[in-house]
Amino acid sequence: MSTEASSRGDLARLPWISFSIIVVLVVAAVFAPLLAPHSPTEQSLPDKLRPPAWQEGGSMKHLLGTDVLGRDVLSRLVYGARVSLTVAAVALIAGGGVGLALGILAGYTGGRVDNFIMRVVDATLTFPTILIALLLAVSLGQGLGTIAIAITVIIWARFARIVRGEVLSVKTRDFVALARVHGCSHLRIMAVHIVPNVLNTFMVLLTLHIGFVVIVEATLSFLGAGIPPPTPSWGQMVSDGRSHIASAWWLSVVPGGAIMLVVLVFNLFGDWLRDWLDPRLRQV
Amino acid sequence: MQRYILRRLLQGALLLFIVALVVFALARVSGNPIDLLVREDATAEDRAHLQKALGLDRPMHEQLYIFLTGAVRGDLGQSIRYRRSAAEVFFERLPNTLKLLPLAMAGALAIAIPLGVLAAVYRGTLVDRLAGGLAVLGIATPQFWLGIVLIYVFSIQLGVLPSARMGGPSHYVLPAVTLGVFLLAGMMRLVRSSLLEVMGSEFVKLARLKGLSQTIVIWKHCLRNALIPVVTLFGVYFALLVTGAIVTETVFAWPGVGRLTYEAVIFRDYPLLQAVILLKAVIVLSVNLVVDILYAYLDPRVRYA
């Protein structure tokens, strides 16, 4: 009873505004072709550099204005959400997965393996890993795969460190010893008995890192190492608008604001999920 | 202590070696490395010449040997864009970045410490909530976007600060702010939480019992201890600054090594990029090493952990 009451209490504290924005965002990303008023890549030079609807010279046809090539900013924004969320999902599954696996291996095995993995984790955390990500983009070429690898390099250590700590306490529990007595292999114990017990922590970590990954992806795009054009991505849009900031502020400010909003709502949602599922993580 | 230093030196060298291996391998996984190392309009003769100079026709382990021994001697290849030694270009630009980083770090500390202290002292009040909200916003703001918005507001609308390139003191304001805000949020949270922890400890109670004023207890007794975690994380902050400088210098056309990194990416100047990465790795690792050794010197518990 008590757990149900407390979970109901926590659900009541769900950050509704953030949650609604996340739902809108996901819907926009999934149904982008239906929702976007124009094609995100179709150019129309007579319509170039139209300001947003509420400014003088703007029209309802292009709510958030148009860019240098006359492309509709709102449509590009909607399609950009698709790119950001896809990259975030792929990168988090890859990077989080690697972190989870190595974290479990380190925590469960202990000894030299643990020592070695944790040294690499420490080193990775103090190294400007974005440099390696840039190098990947230049040598392998730009694309979703490259970004996923690059972000994996950047985030795996954060996951591994926390998952390992969790495994250290899980593995001393009786059911692990019992499984061992029953003749389970170490691999089976890790997969069947340890993984479910660190899953809550893992889910919270995933949510807390969505915002971070969105920023990293946008930063890579801004630096010319993200998803290649003409696919619209928010970082790329901010970068393209930079040289027109004096005459067309909306080109950079609008997509940048979108990034900030998305990161903000995912972080607030992640904080709530952490307090609900795994309050101990609050210290990290 | 000597053992500790030796161990840390070896770790640093190992990590550097790994980074060098990654750089070496990445140039070769995507096919013919010669495509990454010369200009697109290079003649067949040029290509053959470089191929021989770099030993690209030899077996892999010999290539690695040539690359590593060259790197140790400071020969990190020729920049495609600048047509001269990549390491030379890097060291020309380095001072400009070194002028910016301490400013950003000092600015971030100057705001993060008082704000963190206020948030901790007035815990749960409006002040604390405001500071917390500011931190949440700071974390969510993409750095490159903050720079652009600052340029729009202060250079274009108000016209009070320059938007690009180096110059007098006013040129430093916007880049330093952009770079500093990046650190601010995390630092402030850390000061707040570690101060709260210290404020509950016995020696603080004793100081209060002695009749010392609240101001002296907080700013002298507590803060000194609360800042230890901030000092410990100096190495991490430094790495963050080096990362942040890439974006900041790009936005503000600042002629430092961050902007150089961006140029290397945009112009697909692989030799320059690999030099930048290896040299930055050396710098970041050295700073971390020095911080760790100082810390171990000050706190013997670290040495024997």
Written account of the structure:
- The complex is a heterodimer of chains A (284) and B (305).
- Chain A is mainly α and 284 residues long.
- Chain A has one domain (81-283): Orthogonal Bundle (MetI-like fold).
- Helices cover 71% and strands 0% of the residues of chain A.
- Chain A has 11 helices and no strands.
- In chain A, helix 4 (73-109) runs antiparallel to helix 9.
- The longest helix of chain A has 37 residues, at 73-109.
- Chain B has a domain at 92-268 and 281-298: MetI-like fold (Orthogonal Bundle).
- Chain B is built from 15 helices and no strands.
- In chain B, helix 7 (143-157) crosses helix 8 and helix 7 packs across helix 12.
- The longest helix of chain B has 36 residues, at 86-121.
- Chain B is flat and about 85 Å long.
- The model of chain B has no long low-confidence stretch (mean pLDDT 85).
List keywords for this structure.
heterodimer; A: 284 residues; mainly alpha; MetI-like fold; 0% strand; elongated; disordered N terminus; B: 305 residues; 15 helices; 78% helix; flat
Structural class of chain A: mainly alpha
What is the CATH domain class of the domain at 92-268 and 281-298 in chain B? Mainly Alpha
Biggest β-sheet strands, sense, barrel of chain B? none
Shape of chain A: elongated
CATH architecture of the domain at 92-268 and 281-298 in chain B: Orthogonal Bundle
Chain-averaged pLDDT of chain A: 85
By CATH, the superfamily of chain A comes out as MetI-like
Helix content, binned percent of chain B: over 70%
Number of domains of chain A: 1
CATH topology of chain A: MetI-like fold
Query: Ranges of chain A with pLDDT <50 over ≥5 residues?
Result: 1-8
Give the total of beta strands of chain B. 0
User: What is the chain-wise order of helices and strands of chain A?
Assistant: HHHHHHHHHHH
Distance between the termini of chain B: 12 Å
The CATH fourth-level homologous superfamily of the domain at 92-268 and 281-298 in chain B: MetI-like
Give Rg of chain A in angstroms: 22 Å
Portion of residues in helices of chain A?
A: over 70%
- Output the CATH topology of the domain at 92-268 and 281-298 in chain B: MetI-like fold
Shape of chain B: flat
Which structural category do the helix and sheet elements of chain B fall into? mainly alpha
**Greatest contact between two chains:** A-B, 44 and 50 residues
